[in-house]
């Protein structure tokens, strides 16, 4: 998540990642030693937040309390960490809560760091990244899957790069709630659960099968638990096969309840194990999988590697922005000129407005590259088309909030200032929008010309722009635009003086 105000300058060699899943909350703390990830601590709490998710998107009070109590404990470990060293993401259940703003605020208060809600597509990317670093890629493609509490991610990739990925609405908690809520198990409801999973897979299975793969890897608590059960039963050395999954389902049907105690299965996994096994069985059947190996790393480790890339300025978000700009035929010469001017203005007022130059600079330069994508759709009100595209397209590496911030900057780059679309209290984002608007004004014409020295200073809501009077006389349209901008800023309580 973008931290636009000045970052805590304290230094730490440790980094942390937290995954707020539908079944369990996980925290991992690690450090880098000779470019290798060294895990220092892991914490897991089977919060089962997904159990408290209602059909209307509400979260039960019991689930909310369980979740926040867990985050209170996690927060004790993270209080001294600078924000740049921590990433916390929410997945399916947090994506599904109808109004997550209060929960996110309560979570941040306990953790000392913000929580990002990521899309299913981004979740799949991070899972693949974690698995790819855990088990060295073989020649050819690999199929990776992760069964969470509320969703299941499947990815085909090659080397370190995912090729296709999907997030499906089925998981160990979701299937258990839907078909085994009373704990009763029989052939009928087990078969209904299996058919429901197969129906979820039908629209995507053919595309994945056509890709083909040389290796199948599973990364999740469910899959690792299945591998342990298979090993404990002597069915295999930890390799998972379809026949083993069918045996497990038969054991549950014979027992008649989800409380079946199986050697190798932990007590906290027991209530949702059958739901996860049925999801995995459907994956085997639908994707024609022969056998699978469990991987130890997944989403959390993927978060750490992604965070490392950001800290070392290898940010995948930059590539996502550039790809989107190319897809919508953005005039990159002009976009880069706007970005350069915006960054120049940022450098001059970063201290005045207490902005973090690095993070604010990223967001500002990306908005400069994307503000005109809507021109590829229609010229009239193109800024609205641009904002819609940026908000709703899948941008690898970006959370929902990050895309929302980019979208509102793009929306605000011209015409009246859309103050009602800005997050309440986020003055930093308003400041960046003002800088982008001014940069766009100076590059309004089709031809990018050399600009005179532009001096900008700011004090809270007062802005002073110093520029050559002779240049303004030679560019009356720019001067007119600046005068119009004075009125637009005045509408939101800001004063622009041109000297």
Question: Which geometry do the CA atoms define?
Answer: elongated
Low-confidence stretches: 7-11
Q: Report the β-strand fraction as a percent range.
A: 15-25%
CATH superfamily of the largest domain: Exopolyphosphatase. Domain 2
In whole angstroms, how far apart are the ends?
A: 37 Å
Quaternary state of the chains: single chain
CATH architecture classification of the largest domain: 2-Layer Sandwich
Quick one: CATH class of the largest domain? Answer: Alpha Beta
Query: In terms of structural class, how would the helical and strand content be classed?
Result: alpha/beta
Strands ordered across the widest β-sheet: 8-7-6-9-11-10
Estimated radius of gyration: 26 Å
Helical amount among residues, as a percent range?
40-55%
Walk me through the structure.
- The protein is α/β, with parallel strands linked by helices and 499 residues long.
- It has 3 domains: 105 residues, 2-Layer Sandwich (Nucleotidyltransferase, domain 5), CATH 3.30.420.40; 182 residues, 2-Layer Sandwich (Nucleotidyltransferase, domain 5), CATH 3.30.420; 134 residues, Hypothetical protein af1432 (Orthogonal Bundle).
- It has 18 helices and 14 strands.
- The strands form 3 sheets. The chain has a 6-stranded mixed beta sheet, with helices on both faces.
- A hairpin with a 2-residue loop joins strand 12 and strand 13.
- Helix 14 packs antiparallel against helix 15.
- The longest helix has 25 residues.
- About 1% of the residues have low confidence.
Short description:
The protein is an alpha/beta fold and 499 residues long. Helices cover 49% and strands 16% of the residues. The strands form three sheets. It has a six-stranded mixed sheet with strand order 8-7-6-9-11-10, sandwiched between helices. A five-stranded mixed sheet has the order 3-2-1-4-5, with helices on both faces. Strands 12-13-14 form a three-stranded mixed sheet.
